[in-house]
Amino acid sequence: MGVPVRRFDAVIVGGGGAGLRAALQLSESGLKTAVLSKVFPTRSHTVAAQGGISASLGNVQEDRWEWHMYDTVKGSDWLGDQDAIEFMCRKAPEAVIELEHFGMPFDRLENGKIYQRPFGGHTQNNGQTPVQRACAAADRTGHAMLHTLYQRNVRANTQFFVEWMALDLIRDADGDVVGVTALEMETGEVFILHAKAVLFATGGAGRIYAASTNAFINTGDGLGMCVRAGIPLEDMEFWQFHPTGVAGAGVLITEGVRGEGGILLNSNGERFMERYAPNLKDLAPRDFVARSMEQEVLEGRGCGPNKDYVLLKLDHLGPDIIKQRLPGIREIAIKFAGVDPIKEPIPVIPTCHYMMGGIPTNYRGEVVIPQGDNPESRVNGFFAAGECACASVHGANRLGTNSLLDLVVFGKSAGDSMVEYIKNEMPTWKDLPADAADRSLARIARLDGQTNGEEVADVRTAMQRTVQARAAVFRNADNLSKGVTEIQQVAERVKRTQIKDKSKVFNTARVEALELENLIEVAVATLIAADARKESRGAHAHADFPNRDDEVWMKHSLYYGDERRLSYKPVHTKPLSVDYIPPKERTF
Amino acid sequence: MTDFDPVELKRIRWHSRRGLLELDLVLERFLAQRFDSLSPAEMSAYKALLELPDNDFLDVVNGKTDLDDPSIMQIVEILRAI
Predict the structure, then answer these.
(1) Which residues of A touch B20 (CB under 8 A)?
(2) Residue A133 DSSP symbol
(3) Which pLDDT tens digit goes with each residue over A381-408?
(4) Torsion of CA A31, A98, B21, A511, to 10 degrees
(5) Domain ranges across chain A
(6) If residue A556 lies in a helix (H) or strand (E), which one and from where to where?
(7) What is the torsional sign of CA B5, B7, B11, B16?
(8) How confident is the model at residue A109 (pLDDT cuts 50, 70, 90)?
(9) What percent of chain A has pLDDT over 90?
(10) pLDDT digits (tens, 9 = 90+) for A344-389
(11) Where is the FAD-dependent oxidoreductase 2 FAD-binding domain (chain A) (predicted)?
(12) How many CB atoms neighbour CB B60 within 10 A?
């Protein structure tokens, strides 16, 4: 086959925060580095991060990285790997100061130091009092980070392949990664990008859920490529949710609405939170409210034609309070829910926000998989960082502001590991296997040749509805096992998707069909891993197993797509330099 | 519908995929309802809007900020109303 080949020292798939940070390490060390991105890098989903980036700088209040580490371990509900968590929290101050030196416009104190704001879950002295640890650039921290890193990469001569979609990972007979295949959207041509090392920084896959805050580009491309190449996915049962997203849209309605007196109603007009949480009612903790909402829907008291959402009522507050104290909410409701909250309640549903699981890596950003007796044997030439990776620092639940930190700390760490690997172990390219592009070409040929197939949008909707109904915040054995069967039926439909437009140039229908092939792998992994975990931990709340079971379940799941099976590996309980933080009940 | 280069139209559609969900939702509706009937002047105004950084673009769509160019503001008004 005459598939054109291009050679680079390093190929990075994904141009968000993690990909750009890694690329900078590589380019600045003089290696020829390519970054592939489906969209212009500064339009990656990292722009959506508003809250900030946490680091124990102690600029406002006394702080220590050990306290940050404790909060992160506790937040992870003891599923996070403590060596990786120590690494991230220790490196955080240096990572933030480095961004400042790169020119990132952080908010400042009067004394010129970086201002830090409080954020949920971050405390002083191992949980005693809240601490101001989040560094921010107004409400545009992610945007500022992306622009800063992009400019640095341009200066360092990183080569950008914009509007290129990676299709498949290329592994040779030894199992080593030697490149990727990719589609140049402008021409519709498939290329082989031959590399000494490949990094995936492809972001999350929140679009597997019907209700998601994720942008449309978040289709888990790196995860789909891993599954097809025999690389397992770690901890895919853990997804973070926000209780009140606009039903059918995903745009968030701030908790402040309930703080100001907004209440949740079911289809009987009942304020159901009074039943679940007689004291706190609608202001109970986030995960509790979300599970109660879903229970109402599952028991048939949802609203709307499909009975699949509840209502957030605030008209009783009166127009003045709504306009004064909740600016923007009315506009969001009108624009995305089609209702004016001054007159009508807003349809809301628990909404997927962040993927804790992903491609298994260590804190060096190396992809590690079980081989022989070693649960974490390195896949030569393969690295991952950011939301697509599972280091695992977030464990079963991520703390706010730790995601941007994850991007820069592990982006840099992976970049350093790649430089070391290329310079010390891979002075030249390994040969490409003869069938390097076959899988990708076959996928495209299948799509082009499919007749009597299914519409991509229909199958995608079926997948999203299944995952939302079976594996969102309310989980029980019956629901999950039904979900496992249903999602595998949807997966069969994905094999028969059809596109009308068979043209080559900028064929976005083809791109969306290929994206669905990635999403479905993530969806199946999520259902199977969630069905298997018979405990409740962090974001995985199982109604039939309401307690955390450290004896049996303090372990990471690994999902293999070829046989749709799971294996498990231990959580790392040895931090790099400090004492192990033993499990406790997670109370607040 | 004017004669636009079909490849260019596909490219503009892809450029309507953004990093922020709110923009994806608004632009998805715009592409479905209005895109095919744009005049050449409106099309170039829309292309200019797509060059904005996502956060600035969303501020414009949400009515937090306006732009100086009246021809671009015509498209902005459509996006705000859609």
Answers:
(1) 45, 47-48, 215
(2) E
(3) 999 999 999 999 999 999 989 999 999 9
(4) 0
(5) 5-238+356-425, 242-351, 438-558
(6) strand A555-560
(7) positive
(8) very high
(9) 89
(10) 999 999 999 999 999 999 999 999 999 999 999 999 999 999 999 9
(11) 9-404
(12) 20
- Residue span of the structural domain in which B44 resides: 6-81
Average pLDDT taken over every residue of chain A: 95
CA proximity to A243, closest of A269, A280, A205: A280
Q: Is A530 within 8 Å of A559 (Cβ atoms)? A: no
In this complex, do B54 and A143 lie within 8 Å of one another by their Cβ atoms? yes
* pLDDT band per the 50, 70, 90 thresholds, residue A471: very high
Q: Return the residue of B nearest to A511 by Cα.
A: B14
Asked if A50 reaches chain B (Cβ–Cβ under 8 Å), the answer is no
Asked whether residue B54 is assigned to any structural domain, the reply reads yes
Class at the top of the CATH hierarchy for domain A5-238+356-425: alpha beta
* Residues A377, A379: Cα–Cα separation, whole Å: 7
If pLDDT is split at 50, 70 and 90, which confidence band does B2 have? low
The yes-or-no answer on residue A286 being catalytic is: yes
3.40.228.10, 1.20.58.100, 3.40.1190.20, 3.40.47.10: CATH of A438-558: 1.20.58.100
- Domain count along chain B: 1
What number of residues does chain B have? Answer: 82
- Mean pLDDT for the stretch of residues A185-212: 97
pLDDT band at A256 (very low <50, low <70, confident <90, very high): confident
CB contact under 8 A, B21 and A147: no
d(CA B37, CA A122): 51
Residue B1 lies in a domain: no
DSSP conformation letters of A57-116: --SSS---HHHHHHHHHHHTTT-S-HHHHHHHHHHHHHHHHHHHHHT----B-TTSSBPE
Please list every residue in chain B whose beta carbon sits closer than 8 Å to the beta carbon of residue A500. Answer: none
Cβ distance of B26 and A335 shorter than 8 Å: yes
Q: Scanning every residue of chain B, which has its alpha carbon at the shortest distance from the alpha carbon of A162?
A: B15
Residue B33 has pLDDT above 90, yes or no: yes
Chain A residues within 8 A of B11 when measuring between CB atoms: 186, 506
CATH topology assigned to domain A242-351: Flavocytochrome C3; Chain A, domain 1 (3.90.700)
Which of A7, A286, A325, A564 is the catalytic position?
A286
pLDDT (0 to 100) of residue A200: 98
How far is it, in rounded angstroms, from Cα A147 to Cα A180? Answer: 26
Q: Rounded to whole angstroms, how far apart are CA atoms A481 and A474?
A: 13
CATH number of domain containing B48: 1.10.150.250
pLDDT digits (tens, 9 = 90+) for A520-529: 999 999 999 9
Region A404-416: mean pLDDT is: 98
Q: Do A573 and A581 touch, CB atoms closer than 8 A?
A: no
